[in-house]
Amino acid sequence: xxxxMTQYQTITDADxxxxxxxxxxxxxxxxxxxxxxxxxxxxxxxxxxPMVVPGVxxxxxxxxxxxxxxxxxxxxxxxxxxxxxxxxxxxxxxxVCHGIPSDKTLKDGDIVNIDVTPLLxxxxxxxxxxxxxxxxxxxxxxxxxxxxxxxxxxxxQARPGARLGDIGAAIQRHAxxxxxxxxxxxCGHGVGRLFHDAPEVVxxxxxxxxxxxxxxxxxxIEPMINLGKPGVKLLEDGWTAVTRDRSLSAQFExxxxxxxxxxxxxxxxxxxxxxxxx
Length: 278
Ligand code: MF3
Ligand code: CO
Ligand code: CO
Known about the structure:
single chain, about 280 residues, alpha+beta, 3-stranded antiparallel sheet, 4 helices, 19 strands, binds 2-amino-4-trifluoromethylsulfanyl-butyric acid, binds cobalt (II) ion
């Protein structure tokens, strides 16, 4: 049988970018575009820091995300995406991802992920962080810290010549070494002119396997780590994913680009607010 080969495609102009399963390789214009979109995404999360407090509704935070994007000339990529009607995802406590903003308010002790994707000049800046609401118990803070470490350990693997599987293997090792569960149902993804593109960036895997990383590849790493078992289930709304065992879940996400000698993190905070405490 013919083995499926990874195909790479060098992107020279916007018209050539199709969701055709190829891994896109970008040049300097792509890096410039993602740098601007990623910077805006990080600025939006920075601005939310003082607003994520007990009593605020997640819908009010969603409004801020939309207005900040619009003010900067960006659209929110999630708005209208496959029928999704909000400007970001807000996932509280045992919600793993894709929590829908609502009139529900945050309360003391909650851990919250906010995931934003402004679309600026045709480029998607996709990033998320955890926020701690008031006094958060040590057990939950530890989950948040280790999840951030998982993201950064994944990013450390990202350089030319490495394989995609190296990233998942490193993340899985760190998470499971702390007795946490790595969510398998959702993964990182190619990003750029398209919101979700090839390749799939899984957060658990085998080192030395998968496509080779090459300069110009843009993708997200976005591990979802559960305090309990890795299993998730989808709620009736068709979006909200929660842990099956109702244990707490945390996630951080960066959009990165492979460079000649490592990688560039497009969505790093200019103010150093990448992880709590802020
Ligand atoms: N931002 C999410 C990601 O990291 C995707 C959200 S899609 C939505 O890939 F429709 F749920 F908003
Ligand atoms: Co993403
Ligand atoms: Co995201």
